[in-house]
Amino acid sequence: MTSRGSSLWDKARRFIPGGVNSPVRAFGKVGGTPPFIASGSGATITDVDGRTYTDYLASWGPLILGHAHPRVVEALRRACAGGTSFGAPTEKEVRFAEMIVEAVPSIEKVRLVNSGTEAAMSAIRLARGVTGRDGVVKFDGCYHGHSDCLLVKAGSGGATFDVPDSAGVPGDFAKHTITLPFNDAHAVEETLARLGDRIACVIVEPVCGNIGVIPPNPGFLDACRAACTRAGALLIFDEVITGFRVAYGGAQTRYGVTPDLTCLGKVIGGGLPIGAFGGPAAIMDALAPTGSVYQAGTLSGNPLAVTAGIETLSILREPGAYERLDELGARLGDGLTAIFGARGIAAQCHRVGSMMSCFFTTRDVVDARTAMTTDAERYARWFHGLLERGVYVAPSPYEAMFVSLAHTDELIDRTLEAAAEAAKEAGP
Ligand SMILES: *Cc1c(COP(=O)(O)O)cnc(C)c1O
Q1: Helix, strand, coil fractions of the chain, as percent rounded to 5
Q2: Quick check: is 238 catalytic?
Q3: Predicted confidence (pLDDT) per residue in 124-160, tens digit
Q4: Does domain 1-57+358-410 match CATH 3.90.1150.10?
Q5: What are the extents of the domains in the chain?
Q6: Nearest atom (ligand 1) to Cα of 238
Q7: Is-above-0.85 flag for pTM?
Q8: Catalytic annotation on 379?
Q9: Is 164 a residue whose pLDDT tops 80?
Q10: 104-301: which CATH topology?
Q11: Which among 138, 208, 266 is the best mutation to test ligand 1's pocket, defined by most ligand atoms within 8 Å of the CB?
Q12: Residue nearest to atom 13 of ligand 1 (CA)
């Protein structure tokens, strides 16, 4: 039997490398072929063959209100009719910038870009520009987009300058990047004490969200802050996932640690392409046109993306939004923990508000190395069990699940029933 989805998959691979416009969509980590999505509404997506799924992928994080929120759609409809790009300043960009500055403690000025990749790449250029140093410290398993100097993983875990993670990245670029284990405060202190005068910045996801969800150990973010201050390096929080997700003001308000620069993306675009980076005026003014660090974008501050962002943040700042997200997140996260517990399946479910993931391992997951002990084959079986039952989670054991304000207690309870059956099938 051929479905519309499977013929599209054949055609997609003819015209698009690997059939997808971003690698992990191809189901390489779980096997099988991805459904082609035709539409989404609230917490539900529908594929081209008419199958519906409760969605916990949320487009990899942005859709904190669910799909096609009526207020976002209506605002976009009106914005579209008024023109979709001008390449000149607009009033809405200013309103949006003001909302971000009011929400995020470390940001006095913010520059809008078109993706999280651009935000992290530009924040690093800015950090290098203002410090006059080249070195960048990142953490193994933290993803900051696909720009050259950030596509670097850990070497042996030691504090040596690193090698690239992708063909096409010159070793000469990657050698400026040092990779350390997440949650290893001692490694940060030691590295900055030894090489601090060559380090422009330490960039970190304050909650790891790209190797599964790994919260920071108590004191880890504070140690990064203190070590950067001592070394005269900038601390960059990559809050592309956590910004407006784990709290309205991001992880920095949740954990009470203030970075120098903050990267945003995902949620702030309400499902449209956007990114942003911001910090103190004294640093941000080093950007062109006031300063000497060049950064630009034809579509930056795009009226549609900004419109979706303004509407999304307006809804999120209504009283009770984050309490509700946390309640829904707990219902799912605690439910999953209970299911695996009852079946004697070794699993660790980590949750920070409405983002979570489950590692199938007996190890305590605190960094990339321990995250990699998850049983990826069990995850693949569990994933397909869920998919067959109309539940869509990330097609990789190393990615997060997201709950939105469009999820309901009933939907989550049905997901838990599916999760229990899928867990049974996934084996002992
Ligand atoms: C998704 C993500 C990025 C990259 O954002 P894109 O919009 O995909 O370029 C950067 N940093 C983090 C933490 C992310 O999760």
Answers
A1: 40, 15, 40
A2: yes
A3: 999 999 999 999 999 999 999 988 878 776 333 334 4
A4: yes
A5: 1-57+358-410, 104-301
A6: 13
A7: yes
A8: no
A9: no
A10: Aspartate Aminotransferase; domain 2 (3.40.640)
A11: 266
A12: 240
